[in-house]
Design goal:
Number of helices: 9
CATH architecture of the largest domain: 3-Layer(aba) Sandwich
CATH class of the largest domain: Alpha Beta
Order of helices and strands: EHEEEHEHHEHEEHEHEHEEH
Number of strands: 12
CATH topology of the largest domain: Rossmann fold
Number of domains: 2
Distance between the termini: 28 Å
Bound molecules: NADPH dihydro-nicotinamide-adenine-dinucleotide phosphate, oxalic acid
CATH superfamily of the largest domain: NAD(P)-binding Rossmann-like Domain
Shape: globular
Structural class: alpha/beta
Largest sheet: 7 strands, parallel
Strand order of the largest sheet: 8-7-6-9-10-11-12
Helix content: 25-40%
């Protein structure tokens, strides 16, 4: 069985091969652009951002695996073979790492870690008292899926109150939940820190913009880990500069990498992270994909399948 890979650059192929050799030695891994691979011999593909139209050129392809949890870069292909399952990569380590990132970001806003980092870079003993404990401010999590729910649980474990927002109504222990456009204003009014863990869809594009930010309580924090296209960066900068937002920890941008001349880099209230919210190890992802392939070969259902109707 042949699995072609386009994730992490061609230099990552030996690492992917070593990982799969450990968990699925029967799979033969080839780089996506390897000219010696007959397109008709390819069974599976593991990809992050395939060039549009390429997947449709593999006539025997049986399933497509995203190398991340968000598969928007794959689903954007107008020629994507819609008859094949497109599986999001959500091993346990992915949600764990996201929960850690979200908890770190929320705590760093509460502690004003950005202020401390700037003071340290100046050699300045900038003594200040954090005005509140993290547990005194409710965190609003947008997106109560695999990533959102793990993040909620980890925030709760820190004693931080959480509210949640999703497309459909959800019951989550210990969390007041809101759903859909009708539930958004009440959810935002409760969110002293807003965490975005939404997938990129037509509905969520540009959602983090002035109208939404205006509904947050004054002095709110923002943690963005969804997708860059969801955020109107000039609106976030304006809200920070007016003081309506107190701080932001931003992991995803449009475009990526964040251009060198972006005002976000040097902004005193923004912590920039380079799209590292959750990056499980290749071995963990290989184990997950190998397990999915084994299930698929047995005829068992696959987990975390992208739904083109919902767009995520
Ligand atoms: P899931 O599909 O498991 O969950 C998505 C959640 O978003 C669901 O709760 C869904 O609602 C909600 N949602 C979708 N559309 C809307 C909408 N229009 N309005 C309100 N809620 C909506 O996804 P994951 O949790 O696995 O991942 C979420 C996203 O996180 C990924 O798509 C990706 O963009 C991002 N991500 C970023 C990473 C990083 O490193 N920065 C790493 C991993 C993921 P419902 O429950 O009703 O279906
Ligand atoms: C993902 C990501 O979707 O890393 O997994 O952004």
């Amino acid at each position: 069985m042949i699995l072609v890979v386009k994730s992490g650059g061609e230099q990552a192929l030996p690492d992917w091969q070593a990982c799969f050799a450990e968990v699925a030695p029967q799979l033969r891994l080839r780089w996506w652009d390897d000219p010696s691979v007959d397109p008709a011999s390819i069974d599976y593909a593991l990809v992050w951002d395939p060039e549009p139209g390429r997947l449709a050129q593999f006539p025997r392809l049986r399933a497509i695996f995203g190398s991340g949890a968000g598969v928007d870069f794959i689903a954007a292909d107008p020629l994507l073979p819609r008859n094949l399952p497109l599986v999001r990569c959500v091993p346990p380590e992915a949600t764990q790492r996201m929960g850690e990132h979200v908890a770190w970001a929320v705590l760093s806003l509460a502690k004003d870690a950005r202020r401390m980092a700037l003071a340290q870079s100046r050699g300045d003993w900038d003594y200040f008292e954090a005005p509140f404990a993290a547990a005194a401010r409710t965190v609003g999590v947008m997106g109560l899926g695999a990533m959102g729910l793990r993040s909620v649980a980890m925030l709760q474990a820190l004693g931080i109150p959480v509210v949640g927002w999703s497309r459909t109504v959800k019951a989550v222990a210990g969390v007041d939940t809101f759903a859909g456009a009708a539930g958004l204003p009440a959810f935002l009014a409760r969110s002293r820190v807003l965490v975005c863990l939404l997938p990129a869809t037509d509905e969520t594009r540009g959602i983090i913009a002035a109208p939404l930010l205006a509904r947050l309580p004054p002095g709110a924090g923002l943690v963005h880990v969804g997708r860059g296209v969801q955020m109107v960066l000039p609106d976030v900068l304006a809200a920070l500069d007016s003081g309506h937002l107190a701080g932001a920890v931003l992991d995803v941008f449009d475009p990526e990498p964040l251009p060198a001349d972006s005002p976000a880099w040097a902004h005193p209230r923004i912590t920039v992270t380079p799209h590292v919210g959750s990056l499980p190890s290749r071995l963990e992802r290989a184990r997950y994909v190998a397990d999915c392939i084994a299930r698929f070969e047995r005829g068992d259902p696959l987990p975390n399948i992208y739904d083109p109707e919902r767009g995520y």
